[in-house]
Model the fold of this input.
Amino acid sequence: MKLSRRSLMKSGAAAALTAALPMPFVKSVAAADEIVMASLYDLSGAFQEVGKQMNDTLTLAVEDINASGGLIGKKIKVVTYDLQSNLQVSAQYAQQAALRDKVAVVHGGISSASREVMRPILDKYKTLYFYDTPYEGGVCDRNTFCVSTTPSQTVAKLISHACKTWGKKGYILAADYNYGQITSDWVKKFAHDEGGEILGTEFFPFDVTNFGSTLAKIQAAAPDWVVTVLVGGTPLAFYRQFAAAGLNKKIHVCSTTFGSGNEQAVLTSSESDGIVVCYNYMETIDNAQNADFLKRFHKRFGDNYPPLSELPMSSYQGVQMWAAAVRKAGSADRMKVIQALEGGISLEMPSGKFAMDGITHHCTMDVHLAEYKDKVPKIIETFAQQPPSDTAAVCNLTKNPNDNQQYVIKVN
Done:
């Protein structure tokens, strides 16, 4: 990817919130035979459905580790917080996890906005942070490990498929915050790389339910395909109204988020059939590790549990990556774990081979292009061992270990 630091700008982080928060009473809650981990997911609010799933897969990972004897002779204790899909709460609980609970590691944050509130707080208090959610890329921070996918790994494949299979003209619908805005810029870049063009881009808050004017604009623009970068409560309303207008019979749809909130379980097959996605994980992956994982997961949480997407799997794999680093380091000490991760760790996970890139603190992994049919993602093509090349273009923590920011692409 032909990018340079000159083509990027720093994103604004909400670090100012840190100084505004009162200091909580500080105490250590860890017993000598425990390692304390914080789970900071949205268990209520706009992201509650996926937040619950991410917390459940984290729980299974910790129970698996503890059942096998724990880590370095100690059991993992999880302190669970509900971020409530609220940025001020995210800041408050990140500080409490670091100072009051003195956790060894935080796994959490769903939205990129939440991550950019918590990240500077956890940096300040030297608390290791694992961000387990697919995101827009560019975070370069030695204290932070982003263990899910970035646009060069998935969105590039998605847009290439759209341009080559459906046509060169696209239309973007995206969430109105940093994930949607930055990912939309990547969509434009990848479409341009394929000789395509974006006819229109619209941004929406999480609670929009009326897409009438947007559907009229899409009809007037007549794109070959629409890509949705929507989150929160908006996707269901859009897909239903898009189908009700008959547009799903005329215009193809691909998405960077569809299925993450189990939208397919609520929509009818006619409303969701044909939507194409690209993810590191989906339940239809056929390997021994995934079969064993699903068997154990359903034994723990029930056979009627909704399908798992890339997000909860990222939490499971993130915990396992951290645990592997603790074993390698022989310690849960923050810097020793960071150094162990930077030295490289590779695991066989339900999604396939899952390897840490020590230079960027991101992961190399398999990704799968799939099309929904009868509410199930049918894998079209698998791309093995995709590196985080977008972030690698701007981040080298080996050369610049004090780098601590998110780079954001500027598209002219």
User: Anything to note?
Assistant: The chain has two domains: 5-150+286-366+385-409, 155-255. The two ends are 16 Å apart (CA to CA). Residues 5-150+286-366+385-409 form a domain with the Rossmann fold fold (CATH 3.40.50.2300). Residues 48-67 form the longest helix (20 residues).
